[in-house]
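Entry 12.
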Amino acid sequence: MNLRPETVPTHSLSDLTNRLVPSPRMPVLFVGHGNPMNALADNTFTREWERVGAGLPDAQAIVVISAHWLTPGGTHITDAPRNPIIYDFGGFPDELYRVKYESHGDEQVARLLAEHLVEYEARLDSQWGLDHGTWSVLKFLAPAPQVPVLQISIDYSMPLPQLYDLFARLRDLRRRGVVFIGSGNIVHALGRVRWGGGPAWDWAQEFDTQTAEALATRDVARLVDPYRRWSAARIAVPTDDHYRPMVAALSLLEADEEIGFFNTEIDLGSIGMRSFITAA
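Predicted 3D structure (tokens):
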């Protein structure tokens, strides 16, 4: 993988800042992406993604934090001019591997993101593309993007409170035309999936309700410490890879903002599709 440390010459920083002009505050979303087969579906989840996407304001860039790009020990940012599609799954129908999502990147936007994360030694990455946590939802939210699409990886070794602090450094870019999207699942217990369908497990519903209440009241302390705060967390979130994009999205909210929920169902018994967007 072609990685390089971020080295923005001092004289170029003003040019980078000018790449994105001041704008009204852009929304933040967290999207429960669920089963990759949603990319081919016309269902309640994908119709909601289309509805939400149709209401998004004109952006200057879309930046996604996906559960499927984990980089333990560091933070990476895509900067390739064109975004290849990554089919990061196995055992699905051939049709899913033929899904296309055309989008471009932007090296200057990537460098500006990296400059905001310079204390974390963020690196630019020209090899990673868009994984299914990104393209499977953007296919509906932004089907034909005219602006750059970038991804930021998740440092899987970083404790959740520090991860919250890291992504909060990017908050001011919302006032420069950047729409941020976290993509994961708050409840994500693949080992307990009811493939034949059926109601949500009690512990899945319990954890979904507890985290929804904490999100509505912006109880950050609980949300960045789920295993000590909620007994159901160990079952509902056996590994926190899909939970982390929610923490990233949470960190990008400003103090006066409220959120609205959509796709609040639990799919297949143990996959929480609960999503949110900042209120207009």
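Annotation: The two ends are 39 Å apart (CA to CA). DSSP finds ten helices and eleven strands in the chain.
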